[in-house]
Amino acid sequence: MGLIARVSTIFKSKVNNLLDKAEDPRETLEYSYQKQVEQLQQVRRGVAEVVTAKKRIELQLNKLQQMANQWDQDARDAVAAGRDDLAQEALTRKQSVLSQMQSLQTQIADLEKEEHRLQDAQQKLSLKVETFRTQKEVIKAQYSAAQAQVKIGEAFSGLGEDMADVNMALQRAQDKTAALQARAQAIDSLTEGSPLLQLNEPSTGDAIRDELNRLKGSTSVSDELARLKAEMGKTDPS
């Protein structure tokens, strides 16, 4: 299984587990995006580590190359001095260094292949992350818009129910007001012309006393009228 496939499998497993628990899909999308970014960063670190390792081996290879050149020169100097024994030893050392160099060159070649593979994986994963980021923002915007529409719909639905309650309360108030007005009119019609509401002397409950009081009141008025006419110099016609 390649690196991208392994990353994809791990990522899908974690996302599926999160989807079972998440309530807000926007949070899930952000989590998924962050995990992909982390995977991309890991791949980038892998590329950097491979490049660093290759550089170290190349430095070692350069040192070995210098050593091989030095042993070759030493062998030449020994031959010139007639010391074939020393020349042979120098060439033996040179062959050992060349063998090490060959091993390092093989490692460098392997690291270059790994570097290219990781760079290719990095490019593909980077494209996927960017594509996901764009889709994430679109989906988040759509979800937010849908959520706002739902809230508005719920608000209007609640408003309809509230208005129904208001109308019902208003109707009850109008009914009670009309009933109270009708009662007031009925009371007015019943009390209209009632002796209890006339401006007469209060009754004592004694018929004879009431009659005497009325006569007394009538006499008082006649006396007051006669006095007023006398003051004004008027007399009743005979």
Automatic annotation (TrEMBL):
Which keywords does the record carry?
Coiled coil
| Lineage of the species this protein comes from | Bacteria, Bacillati, Bacillota, Clostridia, Eubacteriales
Which residues are listed as membrane-spanning? Answer: none
Q: Name one Pfam family in it.
A: PspA_IM30
From the UniProt record, list the coiled-coil ranges: 47-131
Any idea what this protein is called? Phage shock protein A
Its domain of life?
A: Bacteria
For the keyword Coiled coil, the answer is yes
Q: Which family does it belong to?
A: Belongs to the PspA/Vipp/IM30 family.
